[in-house]
Amino acid sequence: MILVLNPNSTQDVTDHIDRSLQSFRLPGGPQIVCDTLRSGPPGIESQAHVDGTSERLLDYFATHPQRRPPAALVLACFSDPGVFAMREELNCPVFGSAECAYFTAAARGERFGVISILARVVPRHRRQVRLLGLEHKLAADLPIGRSVVALSDEDATLSRLLEVGRTLVQSHGADVVVLGCAGMARYRDRLEDALQVPVIDPTQAAVAMAIGTLLQRGGG
């Protein structure tokens, strides 16, 4: 079983992540279960949110002793909160959505652009890109100026996603676009159709890697 855990407490985000993973639920493949970290903030939008999430994630597993340990864990948040703590504590592969999205984007094109939620998250994204050795592949990282909770306003959010996505492609030369928030999952298909370049959803990228890992090991 692959556990896809949304580290924020917004159930609407989890629900749309779950829907975006329906095509990954293959006959005979690993079961994919989505859950919400109820103790998390409504959105992980600052370094303080990221830093405060590791302990909450550890508490989640400590307070769910009845849950069968997952064969793999996907952290469905583009900040990859708690990923190193989870890898240290859990006896299963742990996939950070941002890390997987960046590597997937790097494999799909020459330069990728990132659509972020808020301007203050961009420096954190750029630090991770540098740590992964992919800075030469980054075309630009641009915010849409909307919080995680505000992403549920579909008309306004899609308008900004299209505007920023076109800027990344036309002005910055991105031939792949990465959605810089798991809460953007519902918009991936529409954005890809409009931009005519690959659009990478971070949770989908992480689940794809988790499935590949489990199939290699013959488990699920």
Helices and strands in order:
Layout: E1 2-6, H1 11-20, E2 32-36, H2 47-62, E3 72-75, H3 83-89, E4 94-96, H4 97-108, E5 112-116, H5 122-131, E6 138-143, H6 154-170, E7 176-179, H7 188-195, E8 199-200, H8 202-217
Parallel strand pairs: 1-2, 1-3, 3-4, 5-6, 5-7, 7-8
What key attributes describe this structure?
44% helix; 220 residues; four-stranded parallel sheet; 8 strands; 8 helices; alpha/beta; 2 domains; Rossmann fold
Task: Give a summary of the structure in a few sentences.
The protein contains 8 helices and 8 strands. The protein has 220 residues and is of the alpha/beta class. It folds into 2 domains: 109 residues, 3-Layer(aba) Sandwich (Rossmann fold), CATH 3.40.50; 105 residues, Rossmann fold.
Detailed description of the structure:
With 220 residues, the protein is α/β, with parallel strands linked by helices. The protein folds into 2 domains: 2-96 and 204-217, Rossmann fold, CATH 3.40.50; 98-202, Rossmann fold, CATH 3.40.50. The chain is built from 8 helices and 8 strands. It has a 4-stranded parallel beta sheet with strand order 2-1-3-4, sandwiched between helices. It has a 4-stranded parallel beta sheet with strand order 6-5-7-8, sandwiched between helices. α3 (83-89) links the parallel β3 and β4. α4 packs across α8 (202-217). 45% of the residues are buried. The model has no long low-confidence stretch (mean pLDDT 93).
